[in-house]
Design brief:
Helix content is about 30%, strand content about 30%. It is α/β, with parallel strands linked by helices. The protein folds into 2 domains: about 10-85, Alpha-Beta Plaits; about 90-295, Vaccinia Virus protein VP39 (Rossmann fold, 3-Layer(aba) Sandwich). It has a 7-stranded mixed β-sheet, sandwiched between helices. The chain is globular, with a radius of gyration of 19 Å. The structure holds S-adenosylmethionine.
């Protein structure tokens, strides 16, 4: 199937700290934005790709990047804009989003006809414009923690703060029939999550909400939770400690990810005053997932 829909790609290279700021600046202007380290060195150069279905306005892109660069205290990046050739999107998508197994979970694209192994928990997913295909080490770390948690749990209450594609909510809903609140501050992610829950027929178990703080009413009213997962970034996770922690029941488990090993102590430290101590650590490719328990 070759899709003749026009598509433009904006591309740039940047260091690990600046690339995130550039991605955030381009998100409102583009249909999809993602960035990946060139090679194994996550401290090295990253490539950012943004895609649009209409020809981008070079001036707007340049202004957004210049403003993000100035806020981050770095030089405005060079970038290219080019029109993509028509491609076989289904074949490419299947190549770039191959089925993958993480713990008991089997993550597979919505239209991928590959056979599903026996005994797995199948997560049918189209990440669309949202983060969360299972490929990133932080998502994998969270899924491994959910897998360990769900072994002994039935119908737990779960909060997925920063749900992206909804992959973690889906994992919790399917592995232990949890009642889940999937929250994100990005309306696009909330919409993508909702679609993925419907595709997997767990939309009655998973409520998708637009929220940016742990003390939003939509989150508080469905708590306290047995499990909270949040894969965001070190700084917002530290800031969120005060509003997120009270939503966890005593003895409940908090899974935090989205930061490098070197930043983990500072993230854990922000949660210590709220009675959370480290139970486990999952390290993948330099990224750490923390499993904490509330005393
Ligand atoms: C790295 S993605 C994680 C997606 C998915 N949970 C996973 O593990 O792959 C982080 C998500 O958190 C959302 N986010 C960032 N800050 C947030 C906040 N303060 N409150 C809620 N969601 C937030 C972003 O919009 C994004 O969808």
């Amino acid at each position: 199937m070759t899709d003749q829909t026009p598509l433009w790609r904006v591309q740039l290279s940047a260091g690990p700290d600046a690339v995130e700021a550039f991605g955030a600046a381009l998100e409102p202007l583009c249909d999809s934005v993602s960035w990946i380290a060139d090679g194994d060195d996550i401290q090295g150069v990253w490539t950012l790709n943004a895609f649009l279905g209409v020809e981008p306005d070079r001036g707007l892109i340049a202004a957004a990047l210049a403003s993000a660069a100035s806020a981050a205290g770095v030089a405005a990046p060079e970038f290219t804009i080019r029109r993509e050739q028509p491609r076989d999107w289904l074949a490419e998508n299947m190549k770039s989003f191959p089925p993958r197994r993480i713990g008991r979970f089997f993550i597979i694209g919505t239209r991928d006809p590959s056979p599903v192994p026996e005994g797995v928990v199948e997560l049918r997913l189209n990440p669309g414009a949202a983060f969360g295909s299972g490929e990133h080490a932080t998502t994998a770390g969270c899924l491994m923690a959910i897998d360990a948690f769900s072994g002994g749990q039935r119908q737990a209450r779960v909060l997925d703060m920063g749900c992206g594609s909804g992959i973690l909510s889906l994992g919790a809903a399917k592995s232990c029939r949890a009642q889940v609140v999937a929250a994100d501050s990005d309306p696009k992610a909330v919409a993508v999550s909702r679609r993925n829950m419907i595709r997997n027929k767990v939309h009655r178990q998973v409520r998708t909400v637009l929220a940016h703080r742990g003390d939003c009413r939509a989150i508080r009213d469905s708590g306290p939770y047995d499990l909270i997962v949040s894969n965001i970034l070190a700084r917002p996770l530290r800031r969120m400690a005060r509003t997120l922690s009270p939503n966890l029941r005593p003895g409940g488990v908090l899974v935090l990810s989205g930061f490098l090993i070197r930043d983990a102590a500072r993230v854990a430290g922000a949660y210590r005053p709220f009675g959370l101590r480290i139970l486990d650590r999952i390290d993948i490719d330099g990224w750490r997932t923390l499993v904490l328990v509330r005393s």
